[in-house]
UniProtKB/TrEMBL annotation:
GO terms for cellular component: cytosol. InterPro entries: DIOX_N (IPR026992), IPNS-like_FE2OG_OXY (IPR044861), IPNS-like_sf (IPR027443), Iron_ascorbate_oxido_reductase (IPR050231), Oxoglu/Fe-dep_dioxygenase_dom (IPR005123). Keywords: Cytoplasm, Dioxygenase, Iron, Metal-binding, Oxidoreductase. This is Fe2OG dioxygenase domain-containing protein. Its main location: cytoplasm. Residues 181-289 form the Fe2OG dioxygenase domain. PROSITE patterns: FE2OG_OXY. Gene3D superfamilies: B-lactam Antibiotic, Isopenicillin N Synthase, Chain. Belongs to the iron/ascorbate-dependent oxidoreductase family. Pfam families: 2OG-FeII_Oxy (PF03171), DIOX_N (PF14226).
């Protein structure tokens, strides 16, 4: 459960990264220290920054710079990869097309999902079937994003080994049936600055993305430098800022990890408000369970919660499809 945290901790995960392939990593004292810090952050806030993650800073920056270039293009150009239900909800959505709790969000985005081939998950997967729609301009966009997705997938797996150690006492508890064939989502997002959104009165009250939780296991947020816009809700309802810290990712727990941990970890509510005059981009990578995974509370987590089971079984793909089908106007 979240607490009244006032700030979001920064965790140096380099021991987890270094010992990833070490069969005895669970006995390593530096790994154990990171596991403790992760566990504490997940219990208290459901949010933390990671440094020492090993993804090159040049790539993290390049991803943001190409994202700016794409959103700078004329609307007609962006529409060439328009998101539709027929395209498996993959592609470009205009400003206000995504809705959160019934209210249009002041962001535009490209949504990408791991490929689902026809028939792969039967009726469960049908709505999301398809390949991603990548823009031809800027050149190299697809290649760069795919490289980035690969590295984010590897990194998430490393962090989840730490979390699996904390919750289940074994490094691979979140692999196999739960996430051995992990699904992923990438949202490439742009939030106009306060004065540039057309027809807005400069009150700066427009919500870039309304309060929500993420759907899967773990999110890696790569946000623009110099703009504080992401806010995280603590137990008493205060919004705590998560300012960009160069060289880090903001990480947060998703709904499926909340279920698996029997609520020991919460998928914390968060929102985005860009009150700056500058256009802000964010690339959010979501590491999710296997598309057809049935996720339920882990026995040991139920024991640690006084023997009370706090959630039933949820099939990840159903949860995602339910969200996606109600997220758009
Ligand atoms: N794949 C993820 N987690 N996307 C987060 C989007 C949150 C906004 C969405 N309209 C909603 O209400 O969920
Ligand atoms: O823009 C951000 O900083 C976070 C975006 C987010 O929360 C999401 O896409 O789920
Ligand atoms: Fe989010």
């Amino acid at each position: 459960m979240a607490t009244d945290f006032k700030s979001i901790p920064i965790i140096d995960i380099s021991p987890l990264v270094a010992k990833f392939r070490d069969p005895d990593m669970a006995q390593d004292p530096t790994v154990c220290e990171v596991v403790k810090e992760l566990d504490r952050a997940c219990r208290e806030a459901g949010f933390f920054y990671v440094k020492g993650h090993g993804i090159p800073d040049s790539l993290i920056k390049e991803v943001k710079s190409l994202t700016h270039k794409f959103f700078d293009l004329p609307y007609e150009e962006k529409l060439k990869i328009k998101m539709t239900a027929a395209a498996g909800y993959r592609g470009y959505q205009r400003l206000g097309e995504n809705i959160t709790k019934g209210i249009p969000d002041m962001h535009e985005a490209i949504d990408c999902y791991r490929e689902i081939k026809a028939g792969m998950y039967g009726d469960l997967g049908k709505p999301m079937e398809g390949c991603n729609q990548w823009p031809l301009d800027p050149p190299n966009f697809k290649q760069l994003m795919e490289e980035y997705i690969g590295l984010c997938t590897d990194l998430s797996r490393k962090i989840l080994r730490g979390i699996a150690l904390a919750l289940a006492g074994s490094v691979d508890a979140l692999e196999g049936e739960i996430a051995g064939d992990a699904f992923w989502v990438l949202r490439i997002i742009g939030y106009p600055g306060v004065s540039s959104a057309e027809g807005q009165d400069l009150t700066g009250n427009d919500i870039g993305c309304g309060a929500h939780t993420d759907y899967g296991l773990l999110t890696l947020v790569n946000q623009d430098d110099g703009i504080t816009a992401l806010q995280v809700r603590n137990l008493s309802g205060e919004w705590i800022s998560a300012p960009p810290i160069p060289g880090t990712f903001v990480c947060n727990i998703g709904d499926m990890l909340k279920i698996w941990s029997n609520g020991l970890y919460d998928s914390t509510l968060h929102r985005v408000i860009n009150n700056y005059p500058k256009y802000r981009v964010c690339i959010a990578y979501f590491y999710e369970p296997n598309f057809d995974a049935a996720v339920e509370p882990l026995e040991i987590c139920i024991k640690r919660s006084g023997g009370i089971r706090k959630a039933g079984k949820a099939v990840y793909g159903e949860h995602l499809v339910g969200k996606v089908q109600t997220n758009f106007v």
